[in-house]
Amino acid sequence: TKYKKGMKKTRNTFSGRINDLIARYRKVDEDFFEELEEVLITADVGVMTVMDLIDELKMEVKRSNIKETAEVKAVISEKMVELYYGEDEEGLEYLNIQEDDLSVLLVVGVNGVGKTTSIGKLAHQLKQQGKNVVLAAGDTFRAGAIEQLEEWGKRADVEVIKQSEGSDPAAVIYDGIQAAKSRKADVLICDTAGRLQNKVNLMKELSKVKRVIEREIPGAPHEVLIALDATTGQNALSQAKTFSEATNVTGIILTKLDGTAKGGIVLAIRQELDIPVKYVGLGEQIEDLQPFDPHAFVYGLFA
Ligand code: GDP
Description:
Part of the signal recognition particle protein translocation system, which is composed of SRP and FtsY. The protein is α/β, with parallel strands linked by helices. The chain is 52% helix and 12% strand. Strands 3-2-4-1-5-6-7-8 form an eight-stranded mixed sheet, with helices on both faces. Strand 6, helix 11 and strand 7 form a beta-alpha-beta unit. Helix 2 runs antiparallel to helix 3, helix 3 runs antiparallel to helix 4 and helix 10 runs parallel beside helix 11. It is elongated, with a radius of gyration of 21 Å. The termini are close together. The model has no long low-confidence stretch (mean pLDDT 91). The structure holds guanosine-5'-diphosphate. The site of guanosine-5'-diphosphate (GDP) has 19 residues, from helix 6.
């Protein structure tokens, strides 16, 4: 139901247009597929992904001898879920969290995408699962970033390790690791800067932070999560590519899915980047973060 509510915009536009299409055509033909293609592309599903999807649909329609457009709807959702999973096994992509040891999550992303908010939500969720969580305020560049993280720390009731604005992010993360170790924390979530204006420096900074984490804790970081803003469409894709070049991104937090009618971007991201979407942001409140569930997502599109 959180999906249903959070994806209202996408659902209204998307399923409205699909239903309209089905009602207008009734019989499955080439024009129907062409219009369907357009609806999917408008929802930011991504041109390549749409092509694959339409091919799959056509094959299925032939195989199952489907004549009525109304019958195609169920096939579309089925194929979308299949497309998301690809060769992988089905199931939710949970965070790689150690059972009895400290897990380090590094969170990256461009300013304004909802990185800090997502860290706050994630801290809250992990805390509710009984984990002892510490945050490290690694965005020492953006004015107000540290205070904002502290604010979220209060809300989630977790400790925030920080230094002053302008200090070395790697030093802050180092402090965070020591604090997390001495408090026997389960999870350390590291915030990082997101000024893409100076890409080279940012990527250097991230590499340095990552090296510190790797040096201090073998096997860490256990996740490098990138926060991407669903409302920015293809920009989100190019941001993910940029960060992937500098660091091995293991998962995506797709924010502001509630703020867009183009939720199809999830499928494009999965297809074009092959990085799993682990969480989606469905609002501004602390509870508005959901593990990404492709079934619930696609159901949310059509419900
Ligand atoms: P950062 O610069 O990446 O750390 O971004 P912030 O965490 O400060 O978020 C930027 C804005 O996006 C804030 O106004 C947040 O409330 C808002 N925001 C973050 N996540 C979501 C979301 O899932 N849905 C909505 N509607 N707004 C969000």
